[in-house]
Design goal:
- The chain is about 35% helix and about 25% strand.
- The protein has 2 domains: about 120 residues, NAD(P)-binding Rossmann-like Domain (Rossmann fold, 3-Layer(aba) Sandwich), CATH 3.40.50.720; about 170 residues, 2-Layer Sandwich (Dihydrodipicolinate Reductase, domain 2), CATH 3.30.360.
- Helix 5 links the parallel strand 5 and strand 6.
- By secondary structure, it is of the alpha/beta class.
- The strands form 2 sheets. The protein has a 9-stranded mixed beta sheet. The chain has a 6-stranded parallel beta sheet with strand order 3-2-1-4-5-6, with helices on both faces.
- It is globular and about 65 Å long.
- The longest helix is centred in the last third of the chain and has 21 residues.
Length: about 325
């Protein structure tokens, strides 16, 4: 059987991880590279035996037989890439977010459906060991259903570092589109609920290096009455990361104190927290491996498409609701309870 053939579009920071996990997967082959920076393209082509390179997906797709377009480009301006993938009959796996407007993301999902190609989004945090373990704590025989929570993410993200993408520096809402989208998706995935309404405020402190708002505060109501208080920032003015996700359930609490681990729980009368054992993992890489494995299995075994674009739209609607609320609309309704 021929390996699943990928064309990688965009050779920035995230592409390094995808090139690594594609090379490791026994049923994947990287056959094409697309990059507008010709020097960067030449450098990666020299490291990728047998791959065809070009400055557009149209150009490369015409030269090589492929199955999947893997979009590692900035979320803004993907119209031509999605159109080219659909025209060539390529499945689409896109780095999150799918677009930097809800309207564009919806149009991409529609285009893929009309072309008969799958479209998935790289929400790799769903595949973290800590995420899977946290989700399991909410079973009826453990902590029971969650009823309210608090999610805090405080980070000094130095956008000048060479290993980070630079385009968020000029985005209008960098925290929401690039980071909070992960957090909103995790809430929906872990809790198994959908957002009902959101009240939010975004702003930028005086020391922020970002053009757009790097701070987000939100009150989120989900189906079933679950309430979450959210605070996220890329301009936390200390280099040490601050992360805490606490969830209050019928029988006790779940507490995640690091982005990639430090999970524990307690029943109401417990004197101490009980740590949850987690397997050793390489953040960013092992979760990408797991997502890729499910994506390949969709093609090979017919399992449900992981992180489909249709599902991703519900997280993007949360982002848009935060923007609308902060712009003066007050509490924004998303769906009926």
């Amino acid at each position: 059987m021929t390996a699943l053939r990928f064309i990688l579009i965009g050779l920035g920071a995230r592409s390094r991880i995808w090139r690594r996990v594609l090379k490791e997967h026994p049923d994947c082959s990287l056959v094409g590279l697309v990059e507008t920076d010709r020097d960067r393209l030449a450098g990666v082509l020299a490291e990728t035996a047998g791959a065809v390179g070009g400055i557009s997906l149209d150009e490369v797709a015409a030269e090589v037989e492929a199955d999947v377009a893997l979009l590692c480009t900035p979320p803004g301006g993907r119209q031509s890439q999605v159109a080219a993938a659909c025209a060539a009959g390529l499945g689409i796996l896109a780095e999150k977010p799918l677009a930097d407007t809800l309207t564009d993301a919806e149009s991409y999902v529609i285009a893929a459906k009309e072309a008969g190609v799958p479209i998935a989004v790289g929400l790799n945090f769903r595949y973290l060991a800590v995420t899977q373990a946290l989700k399991s704590l909410f079973s009826p025989d453990r902590l029971g259903p969650p009823e309210f929570g608090r999610f805090t993410y405080e980070r000094w993200r130095d956008g000048r570092l060479p290993n980070l993408n630079k385009y968020p520096m000029s985005m209008k809402q960098p925290m929401l589109w690039e980071q909070s989208i992960h957090h909103f998706d995790l809430m929906r995935f872990v809790y198994g609920v959908e957002p009902v309404c959101i009240s939010a405020r975004t702003f930028n402190p005086s020391w922020s290096m970002y053009d757009g708002d790097a701070n987000v505060g939100a009150l989120i109501t989900f189906t079933g009455g679950l309430e979450v208080t959210y605070q996220g920032t890329w301009a936390g003015n200390w280099q040490k990361m601050g992360f805490e996700w606490r969830t209050e359930c019928q029988r006790g609490v779940a507490l995640q104190q690091e982005m990639f681990g430090a999970l524990s729980y307690a029943i109401r009368d417990d004197p101490e927290l009980t740590p949850v054992p987690l397997p050793e993992s390489e953040p960013w890489v092992d979760d990408a491996r797991a997502l890729l494995a499910d994506f390949v299995s969709h093609f090979r075994k017919g399992i449900p498409l992981p992180c489909p674009g249709t599902d991703h739209l519900n997280s993007l609607r949360m982002v848009e609701a935060c923007i609308r609320s902060s712009n003066g609309e007050g509490t924004v309704s998303l769906c009926e309870q």
